[in-house]
Design brief:
The chain is α/β, with parallel strands linked by helices. The protein has 3 domains: 156 residues, Aconitase, domain 3 (2-Layer Sandwich); 88 residues, Aconitase, Domain 2, CATH 3.40.1060; 175 residues, Aconitase, domain 3 (2-Layer Sandwich). It contains 15 helices and 19 strands. The strands form 5 sheets. The chain has a 5-stranded parallel sheet with strand order 5-4-3-6-7, with helices on one face. Strands 17-16-15-18-19 form a 5-stranded parallel sheet, covered by helices on one side. The chain has a 4-stranded parallel sheet with strand order 11-10-9-12. The chain is globular.
């Protein structure tokens, strides 16, 4: 608990409530949820080697997502035998330990961050840990969710983890975005402004009029991609939008417990005089549809612009980085971005696979045909079911796109969905590193509406110039 009496940020309040012990600059915090994926074999193996038991199996959940195929929902649909054996093994070990499993064939399964949020396993004020770097996605509902990597076995055995309490950067987003500009474009513009290390090791708290009217799904995109500027934690303080989203979800409190929970959640806003390492305000009204040209999320520019020229960069190191990126991406400086042809399109990933994202893409694809291979993958089985109930799958298939099963799919390229060497993909995923979508792949990060426009035109396209858009 807060022993100082000083004003606290929401991050500090949550950490105060979970602090078990302090030692120097490190804090041992209690963990409410441990989320496991099909990459958790090493954690189970380490527990076995050390003779350790899982302390609270009822507070852990397994959601296979990285190795699962988009071609089908069952284990038999996993074409690669090694991946099939791994998924079966991980699911079996989790069940042996009494861990809840949303496994292959379960209609609730999908990408761990999407599933946890939509099931209300992520709640305001709870601490969630997982091995995946984009775990902060769940901060969209006011949870403190973060990646712990190799400490996963420790978290399972002790229900605690050691952390260094971060400083907090508060970003105010004010105003309204133009039509066909999304939260993906907003966060890409922020990363381009701050840089890929501009928030390194920090907690980011979002606020402002833009956030106040933003859906939880769009807040998830903001929190998800904040990792791409180095953020350790990311949180949107819970509000009435949060409460409306969480109410009546499977793992949300109910009855009198719900009322008590909301009463507590309302205390989680930051105190008026809380200290921030840095505060900044951004007017979102001038943000355009964004696209990356290089091999880092900070290499983002408006779709209406040109490929930057390294010769105009004074910093020698940055100039060299730009030159390497352009060589890898096969681009020439000063080329109009809308002249860059693409080979395929991917709409999905934990950054952009919610029902809201799929609706935005379907709105552009309705009545149109894609001219390059296009894969659309929902973030969970429940998102897929809701999309189909609205007929979105008919729009995607009628356009010529492939409608896939829930999972990480082409974002992680660990499941059979890849971009071939040298091919160029307009992708709604969150990373464009060299080889991210497969060896030699070239990735341009975009929003769902822009991705859909690219699929229709066969090149990087400005959705605002699409006839009828």
């Amino acid at each position: 608990m807060n022993q100082t009496g000083s004003p606290r940020t929401i991050v500090q309040k949550v950490l105060d409530a979970h602090t078990v012990h302090k030692e120097g600059d490190r804090t041992l915090v209690y963990v409410d949820r441990v989320i496991l994926a099909d990459t958790a074999r090493s954690a189970f193996n380490l527990l076995n080697q050390e003779g350790q038991q899982i302390r609270h199996p009822n507070q852990a959940i397994l959601i296979p997502d990285h190795f699962t195929p988009s071609s089908g929902p069952t284990l038999d649909d996993v074409v690669d035998s090694e991946r099939r054996i791994l998924i079966r093994e991980i699911e079996g070990k989790a069940r042996e330990h009494g861990i809840l499993v949303f496994g292959m064939g379960d209609p609730r399964r999908g990408i761990q961050h999407i599933v946890s949020t939509e099931q209300a396993l992520a709640l305001p004020g709870v601490i969630i840990v997982a091995a995946d770097s984009h775990t902060p996605t769940q901060g969209a509902v006011g949870a403190l969710a973060f990646s712990i990597g190799t400490d996963l076995a420790h978290a399972l055995a002790t229900q605690c983890v050691w952390i260094r309490e971060p400083d907090t950067m508060r970003i105010y987003l004010e105003g309204r975005v133009p039509e066909n500009v999304t939260s993906k474009d907003v966060i890409m513009a922020i990363i381009a402004r701050i840089g890929s290390t501009g928030a390194s090791g920090l907690a980011i708290e979002y606020g402002g009029s833009f956030i106040n009217h933003l859906s939880v799904e769009s807040r998830m995109t903001l929190c998800n991609m904040s990792v791409e500027m180095g953020a350790r934690f990311c949180v949107v303080p819970p509000d009435d939008v949060t409460f409306a989203y969480l109410r009546d979800r499977p793992f949300a409190p109910s009855g009198c417990d719900w009322e008590r929970a909301v009463e507590y959640w309302r205390t989680l806003s930051s105190d008026q005089d809380a200290h921030y390492l840095r505060e900044m305000t951004i007017d979102v009204a001038d943000i355009q549809p964004m696209v990356t040209w290089g091999c880092n999320a900070e290499n983002a520019v408006p779709i209406s612009s040109v490929v930057p020229d390294p010769q105009l960069e004074d910093n020698e190191e940055l100039r060299a980085q730009m030159q390497r990126s352009l060589a890898y991406m096969g681009l020439k400086a000063r080329t109009k971005l809308t002249d860059v042809k693409i080979d395929q399109v991917f709409i999905g990933s934990c950054a952009n696979s919610t029902l809201e994202d799929l609706r935005a893409a379907a709105l552009i694809l309705r009545g149109r045909k894609v001219v390059v291979p296009t894969l659309v993958v929902p973030g969970s089985g429940l998102v897929r079911a809701k999309a189909e109930a609205e007929g979105l799958h008919v729009i995607f298939r009628s356009s010529g796109a492939i409608w896939g099963e829930a999972g990480c799919s082409m974002c992680s390229a660990m499941n059979g969905d890849t971009v071939r060497p040298g091919a160029r993909c307009a992708s709604t995923s969150n990373r464009n590193h060299m080889g991210r979508q497969g060896p030699g792949s070239r990735t341009h990060l975009v929003s769902p509406p822009t991705a859909a426009a690219c699929a229709v035109k066969g090149h990087l396209a400005d959705v605002r110039n699409l006839e009828g858009a």
